[in-house]
């Protein structure tokens, strides 16, 4: 089998961690939804059964990679840049749900609507995820995110949330320490209820130009007793009207 695949692509991918996917403790950012540093995932990548880290790989339309990723059950870190069709999105969700050891997940696509199609528990990401990064049009957040009780890092980029108010209710993400929000033009307020994000240490908000620059913009941020770093960049700079 190795000779048929020429071997080299699989040997290279055994330790594939590109600079775009920050597996080390670095600040995440998203300059665009399609990652310029991603590489096309080869077919039959499922042969690498011992692979633990993979990303960022591009999954093209018509590719079988999304369906076969579920065979890589040793994966702990995964980053994908997806040309999402209904079929590819469904296959990717099914594969991710089978990665029982997955700790860090990053998904980039022009549209992430397929992430909201997961209804049953077996279609959802592993509940022990530590890090989740989303970049792409999503609208509102999928309901399954509420069950990610072990999450310590959450990054929401571009249009991954399109409503005017982002609200974190009581008991939300009890272990979350790092929260990054970037490029959400519709957001006017971020509401943090008492008892939410109880151990949050860093909150970084960038390029949310319509964020209310009054106290209502970051409602109840004072309830975050463990917060030691609050970064606001290019927020409240509303576009000038002609």
UniProtKB/TrEMBL annotation:
What are the boundaries of the signal sequence? none
Q: Which InterPro entries match?
A: LRR_dom_sf, LRR_R13L4/SHOC2-like
Tell me, what's a Pfam family for it?
LRR_14
State the UniProt keywords alphabetically: Repeat
Would the keyword Repeat be found if you checked this record's keyword annotation? yes
Which positions fall inside the Disease resistance R13L4/SHOC-2-like LRR domain?
A: 35-148
Q: What is this protein called?
A: Disease resistance R13L4/SHOC-2-like LRR domain-containing protein
**Organism in which the protein naturally occurs:** Aegilops tauschii subsp. strangulata
């Amino acid at each position: 089998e190795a000779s048929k695949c020429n071997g080299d692509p699989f040997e290279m991918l055994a330790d594939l961690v590109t600079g775009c996917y920050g597996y080390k403790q670095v600040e995440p950012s998203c300059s665009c939804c399609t990652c310029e540093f991603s590489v096309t995932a080869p077919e039959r990548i499922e042969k690498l059964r011992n692979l633990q880290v993979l990303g960022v790989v591009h999954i093209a339309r018509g590719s079988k990679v999304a369906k076969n990723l579920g065979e890589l059950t040793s994966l702990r870190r995964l980053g994908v840049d997806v040309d999402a069709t209904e079929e590819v999105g469904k296959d990717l969700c099914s594969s991710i749900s089978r990665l029982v050891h997955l700790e860090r997940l990053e998904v980039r696509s022009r549209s992430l609507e397929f992430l909201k199609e997961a209804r049953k528990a077996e279609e959802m990401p592993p509940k022990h995820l530590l890090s989740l990064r989303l970049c792409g049009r999503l609208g509102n957040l999928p309901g399954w995110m509420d069950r990610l009780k072990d999450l310590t890092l959450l990054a929401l980029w571009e249009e991954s949330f399109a409503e005017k108010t982002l609200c974190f209710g009581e008991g939300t993400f009890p272990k979350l320490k790092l929260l990054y929000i970037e490029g959400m033009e519709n957001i006017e307020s971020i509401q943090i209820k008492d008892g939410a994000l109880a151990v949050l240490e860093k909150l970084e908000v960038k390029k949310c130009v319509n964020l209310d620059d009054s106290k209502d913009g970051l409602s109840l941020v004072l309830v975050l007793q463990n917060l030691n770093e609050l970064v606001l960049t290019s927020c409240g700079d509303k576009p000038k009207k002609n």
